[in-house]
Amino acid sequence: MRPPPHVTASPTAAFHAWSSSSRRRPRHRGGSGMTMSVSCCRVAALVSLLAAGAATALLTFSLLSSPGVSTTRRTDFAGTLSVANETPPPPHLSAPPAPATQPPSPLSPPVVRPRKREPSYWRMAPEEALRYAKKKIRNAEAVLDDPDLYAPLFKNVSQFKRSYELMERILKVYIYQDGRRPIFHTPPLSGIYASEGWFMKLLKESRRHVVTDASKAHLFYLPYSSQQLRLTLYQADSHNLRPLAAYLRNFVRGLANKYPFWNRTRGADHFLVACHDWGPYTTTAHRDLRKNAIKALCNADSSEGIFTPGKDVSLPETTIRTPRRPLRYVGGLPVSRRSILAFFAGNMHGRVRQVLLRHWGDGQDDDMRVYSLLPNRVSRRMNYIQHMKNSRFCLCPMGYEVNSPRIVEAFYYECVPVIIADNFVLPFGEVLDWSAFSVVVAEKDIPDLKKILQGISLRRYVAMHDCVKRLQRHFLWHARPIKYDLFHMILHSIWLSRVNQIELEG
């Protein structure tokens, strides 16, 4: 069978095909001239085939003898040796030469250097990892651009970002399973003390940070609720908080006798989170709990000797009305639609609110809407939340204690808070620049409050309002925590407190 026309035969195969065909005598319808012509064609074809074979042999011999060609020997399946030639490709098929290195053009984007490989934190001892983190935070590289962080909100956004990244990679927390319910392990998720409950709930659900092996932990959590402690043990109208403090003291003593962890640092790597006004006073019966442990407290009063700025954490007080929808009422109006200069309505708890009401309350000034409780004639036209959304400034005076849930409410409704509490340590004050999004007024300056607020230019106010809107994400609870939200901000402050306690070697 003849090969298809598109298959090229070798010279030898072509020669045999020609020989066999020459034995057959074709039938010729023409004369002898035609026969001679066919014979000449056959001879010419034979000569061409022989010439092609000779040229192929000559080319092969020249390539084998060329020093630029590598020759390898291989053994075929029959055991004979054959030669495989590796010839370079023709010049027109060669790879193009590599272009010469040129200096980057001034308009080209900057070269991003790859970050150095991080060490294996899980192999480090807890204090070694904290010491490493402290060095890295101090030497944090400048943040050029991060869409999740707005630099004017922070004292040092580069250090915050680096510290937060290290917290995510390093921090492990051990949660004690001891303690009787409902005082322990029963988080309140609604009301004005919900911060302690939401933190407890979300930390318990965290797979990233919680460990069951206490030897790997950098921090130890005492999962109690100051609100549940009050509801369970406090005798109404007794004004006696000693039983509450004694209960917490006995719990810590039990942990110290049962486990080795408290005694290693005398409680310096342990923390609690308490939002009730009495939270600080429940720690006073145990010396190391009061002096050494990290206390995240809503009642962050620096004048009483219980809250220690720099070690303890100011916990934001958040009002959660609907636990299943904690973000239900979040949002506000633009600056152009905020017609009220300042607004406050609430119970007359403590000394500061009395002074505020005396100077600005009961309709004395239409720009300053200050009420003890929102009157029905007013609330029918505009309720409490609508007042906050229509006001430029929301007044946040202290009550019986320095803290107030109105600060976070102001953020929720995009209203610039005016904080009137002389000894209050502001939440996340170690990383946030509160002058960018709030006004702090001394208690003695309440008579000049309107003058102080009117002295803020419109340009300045617009910038502050924009900062409030950008800050809002850092004060929101989510059923599933997201980056830089309130749960992570609280956890970061506790982490940073512990890191700052570590002494660097050398």
TrEMBL record:
This is Exostosin GT47 domain-containing protein. The keyword RNA-binding does not apply. Belongs to the glycosyltransferase 47 family. The chain crosses the membrane at residues 43-64. It is a single-pass type II membrane protein. Keywords: Glycosyltransferase, Golgi apparatus, Membrane, Signal-anchor, Transferase, Transmembrane, Transmembrane helix. GO terms for molecular function: glycosyltransferase activity. GO terms for cellular component: Golgi membrane. Residues 1-34, 81-118 are annotated as: Disordered. Residues 87-112 have a biased composition (Pro residues). Residues 169-455 form the Exostosin GT47 domain. Its main location: Golgi. It is found in: Golgi apparatus membrane. Pfam families: Exostosin_GT47.
